[in-house]
Amino acid sequence: MSAPHTHGNDHGHSHDPHGHDHAMPGQGRAFGIGIALNAGFVIIEAYYGWVTGSLALLADAAHNLGDVGGLLLAWAAFAAARLKPSDNKTYGWRRGSILASFINALILLVAMGSLGWEAIQRFSEPTPVAAGTVMIVAAIGVLINAATAALFMAGRKSDLNIRGAFLHMAADALVSLGVVAAGALYLWRGWTWIDPLTSLIIAAVVIIGTWSLFRQSLHLLFDGVPEHIKLPEVRDCLQAIAGVASVHDLHVWAMSTAEPALTAHLVTRGERSTEAILREAQHKLHERFDIEHVTLQIEAEACAAACAPGKA
Asked: What is the pLDDT of residues 209-226, one digit of tens each?
């Protein structure tokens, strides 16, 4: 809790030389290309599924149509995060990217759960597979999904929303590769159980890979500290600044999947100027933790002592 201060002022310092635009160059184009490629593949897959009477291809076409929807959602969130703040939305629409990451992870988990359930059902009711056609179409799917995933390769480590799109496409490439392998084994050995077994293995691998995305996006939705930032280290960094006696009311959260923000009260001893302390604090937070949205309040020791207990 913070009491009124007669000495020291609130200093809202947000340092962002790019006008708060943290989007990676070319990612908007990557979403557009990825959506176009996958929408085209859905049409091809649905057509050959209808011509050959393959329920497997038709089901995968429906699954890939859901992926196109997921990419559209991620693209919309990416675009929304670039909208400028307004008087009634002071942070803009940045949080939309976190919400899109959460929904993308949820869609993946539900889709893989459904795939696993269908695979279990097929163990008891094996069905013939039009292996040749399925392999050719699935191989096209591998190329398209892998190419789409590659479009998001560069941005997956710095933006959770882009990572979600990357995982989605990489999972689809893995699914299509498994279908190709299952088709080849079916042609070679005639094993009807190979298709559901491959589906179960793929579903398990995708669920394990997606759980981290789901957990992180849910954590950020509730204003959790971004995973790459350790709050004790941030506190130690600020307290190590010459002239800072202590730090309280320290909060770090995510404005978007790529933009952490920080607020804190710095209690000073009066041996350095306020501007010098703020400049050093901003520099260290940017260099060590990549935090650019910083708001710091300076308090003199005498005033800080008057604050009520229970500081964060």
From this structure: 778 878 988 999 998 999
